[in-house]
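Suppose you are handed only these lines of text.
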Amino acid sequence: MEMKNIAPVELKQLSNSEMGITWSDGHQSVYPVYFLRINCRCALCVDEITGKGRILTEKIPNDVHPIEVSSVGRYALRITWSDGHSTGIYTFEHLRRLCQCQQCRQKNIRV
Ligand SMILES: [Zn+2]
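From them, the structure of the protein bound to zinc ion can be written out as follows.
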């Protein structure tokens, strides 16, 4: 997917547990917020050397949710979470790959 000019144009809290992003190409993404939290790629959550996840999912509350979302340059969003995690930066490309709308889930079969 060519990501060069694709960026979020609107962020919406769809429910207590879901966030939506409308993209500049018109695509509407849906994300369970818990899913976004456990897919954080910051140095605390992913080992930089091995690339292995370090998140202890049992330590993340089921009702974890974003407290604040801000943009970082023109390439990423920073999400501050209710569990105190605030170093996570989600690049647009990563976010778009994580899209959980039905259309994308059928395309990217993940393990
Ligand atoms: Zn993180």
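What can we learn from it? Helices lie at 33-38, 92-97, 102-107. The chain has a mean pLDDT of 90.
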